[in-house]
Amino acid sequence: MKYLRLYADENGESHFEELEAEFDMALYAPPAPAFGVSAPVGTTRYVMVHFPAGWDSELHPAPRRQLFVMLSGRFQGETSGGAVMDLGPGDVILMEDTTGRGHAARTLGGTEVHALMVHLE
Questions:
Q1: Can you tell me the distance from the alpha carbon of 28 to that of 19, in angstroms, rounded to the nearest whole number?
Q2: Which residue segments constitute the domains of the chain, with CATH numbers given?
Q3: Which of 7, 15, 23, 58 has its CA 20 to 30 A from that of 97?
Q4: Would you say the pTM of this structure is higher than 0.85?
């Protein structure tokens, strides 16, 4: 499973990086058959968020290290250097640009966006 990482470099500029999750087969929920499970990551809480159609932001850093999980709608993220990624349901971004200039974001296609933000330790 591929996902994006959004991070700030030593100069405070944000960048996207594509990563791939690694899975090991595990009996996670017996008696269900084994399936792939990633290494655990510590979390503190999660929030569900709603962006109305037409929502558009200026550059801003992420308020904390978090996973952004798209649930519905279309969204676009942009790094401080101008790289753009379009996102849809099922897309995941590890947001680590908590310093520097941050990123911009906007809803696409005249639709609202629902997402889950998982706060990481």
A1: 24
A2: 2-120 (2.60.120.10)
A3: 23
A4: yes
